[in-house]
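re: ur question from earlier - yeah i can do the single chain one, its not a big deal. heres the input i used so u can compare w yours
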Amino acid sequence: MPKMDHAARRVRAAARSRAAGVAALLLAPGSDLTYLSGYRIFSSERLTCLVLANDGTATLVVPELEAPRAADRAPDVARATWGETADPYALVASLVREAGALAVSDQMWASFALRLQDKLGDREFRVASEITRDLRMRKDPAELDALRVVSAAADRAYVRALDLEFAGRTEREIGADLAALLRDEGHDEVMFTIVAAGEDGASPHHQTGDRKINRGDTVVLDFGGTRDGYGSDITRTVHVGDRPGEEIVRVHDAVRRAQEAGYAAARTGATAQSVDAAARAVIAEAGYGEFFIHRLGHGIGLDGHEHPYLVSGNEQLLEPGMAFSIEPGIYLPGRFGVRIEDIAMLGDDGSCEGLNRVDHALAIVR
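and the output i got, formated as tokens:
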């Protein structure tokens, strides 16, 4: 795994907190905590909280039974442990010594946030993403390397999936095969396998089910997971058995050209919405504008969906180090759907690099 400099990230986060008048970040289990410490832990009824004061002092408040794990994953962060009968909220409050607002994890459980407010109720509470969002949007070199590695693993899984037998099997069976291929190619976790055959392909987030796949079906394959905490996300559309009909070929070609337009528009200094607009214009010109029903893309990193979002109304300027999906689609209700998705990133020269490199063509499978 590439070496992540969590200490340098904490320095930058503390500086942003000072500038924003935030006394401390209070981060429950989630990607912000992992980003700043290297510690990844599931959420539970026992409070875990990274307290990052605006002077850069960091303390990881952990249940006593989790202390060994925390010491292993975040050895450079001080720890304050609490036993089963102790009050962890009072412990967190004791570590907040500066005046000012507090920024808590966007996904902190309400029960935790309310109890912290009871202990620190004279302060303004804000969402931590005000501080962490811009930091996490701009990936450092180690993060970009991690995204390259996991995207290449997803590519290899797709190539192997083309050798699967689709006809006569269920979406669920193909989904299980995709999950196994992701793991075999180096993923630690499989997060999703969308297999949407025929009319199911018209639902972008179809729940993979027991529909049997038949010869002549067009099938959307959208799958991904994580390796060393960083995510993959790839979509390709395949056709089973016979040569696809003219409209399927026409729709797939429009989606492929829309993605190419998105790549061409994704440059340093472009707005997120302008990239969406460039891809959307191609699909509209092809006569399918009303059937492209979602944004063009989302950021990716420690979370599968994070900023920046390539969507109308988002005037965020794209910068080197940003990583995001480019995934146009056309969805014809009751008939079929087509989506092509890559993860891409902006390089130091301002150009857009695709991290998924496997063939974008409408593959024929058996």
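The longest strand covers residues 218-227. not sure if urs matches, ping me
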